[in-house]
Amino acid sequence: MFCRPGYERVMACNRIAPLVVAVALAALTASGCGAAPGPAAPSPEAPPSSAAPATATGAPAGSGPRYVAMGDSAAAAPLVPDQAQPVGCLKSTNDYPSVLARRIGAASFDDVTCSGARTEDLVSRSQPTRTGPVPPQLDAVTADTQLVTVTIGGNDVDLPTIAAKCRRSTLDLPPCAPGLVVDGVDTISSAIDDDADEWSDLVDAIRERAPSARVVLVGYGTYVRPEGCFPDEPINPVDAAYFQAKVDELDARLARVAADRGVEFFDIRPLTVGHDICATPQDRYFEGFAPVSPAAPLHPNGAGARAVGTALADYLSAGG
């Protein structure tokens, strides 16, 4: 199968293919298969008899904005049932954009998120996937688009790839974090600084195509608690603290980009505290190195996608 930087390297190509096939077969043979267990949705209020059918939050279907979702695997929720097209993007029909679209009753919805995406795949490059290239995600944004959500940056700075290489089976092995500082320069921090202008340019490109659209940059979550939880998750406590600090740094820079460009930043870290990879399986929003719910390693599961989509819907409905 085709492998590319970011998510696919986290998965390890020699292990992901059987899992992808299994998920695809399950989707074909068990159409009733749902996402991983998570918080129950609020009971909708009954709409007036003349109204269109309501979504889970009571918004009449089709009454919401014309919505385009852009981003990487943190948005696409790979291996969370069910599989969406194109299959090469390993995208779920229950990722946070899909949950959001249903809850706000989107008049139209184009989910172009794709696992492994980097900023260039959103703006200018046809992203290669194992089932063929997909067009630049920006192509989906048009003059009548009213809402755009974007999750991007993790693959740009190679956070998933580096984190996967820092797996430790024993604390006798040294942590990897010190090796990521070369001549006093933190390589991930440097990459965040280097890529910030590209994220700004992405926002500008979206605004140029859809001047009236509400644009929301959606951040990355609280993946691991500072002390980690070795040996339940094979990460040295030093590395656990380091990598969450880098996620926090990435989110802070994305928030600055949003403020500088006059768009919004939605921080999911508070929402995901206590739901990290060290939480009990029923409380997790992110799966660990060995998932216990249908999801990719170190990625959101169904409960996490549902929680983020629901919180975003509430945020948008409240006016931000």
- Termini distance? 42 Å
Please indicate the percent range of residues in DSSP E strands (runs of 2 or more). 5-15%
Count helical runs. 10
Structural class: alpha/beta
Helix content: 25-40%
Q: Biggest β-sheet: count, sense, barrel?
A: 5 strands, parallel
Total E-strand runs: 7
Rg over alpha carbons? 19 Å
Order of helices and strands: HHEHHEHEHEEHEHEHH
Low-confidence stretches: 1-54
- Overall morphology: globular
Task: Order the strands across the largest sheet as they lie in space.
Answer: 2-1-3-6-7
Instruction: Tell me, rounded to a whole number, the average pLDDT.
Output: 85
What does this protein structure show overall?
By secondary structure, the protein is an alpha/beta fold. The strands form 2 sheets. It has a 5-stranded parallel β-sheet with strand order 2-1-3-6-7, sandwiched between helices. Strands 4-5 form a two-stranded antiparallel ribbon. Strand 6, helix 8 and strand 7 form a beta-alpha-beta unit. The N and C termini lie far apart (42 Å). The N terminus is likely disordered.
Structural features:
single chain; 320 residues; alpha/beta; five-stranded parallel beta sheet
Summarize the structure.
Helix 4 (96-103) crosses helix 10 (302-317) and helix 7 packs parallel to helix 8. Helices cover 36% and strands 8% of the residues. It is built from ten helices and seven strands.
Give the secondary structure arrangement, pairings included.
Blueprint: H1 7-11, H2 13-29, E1 66-71, H3 73-76, H4 96-103, E2 108-111, H5 119-123, E3 147-151, H6 159-165, E4 181-182, E5 185-186, H7 187-209, E6 214-218, H8 237-261, E7 264-266, H9 269-272, H10 302-317
Parallel strand pairs: 1-2, 1-3, 3-6, 6-7
Antiparallel strand pairs: 4-5
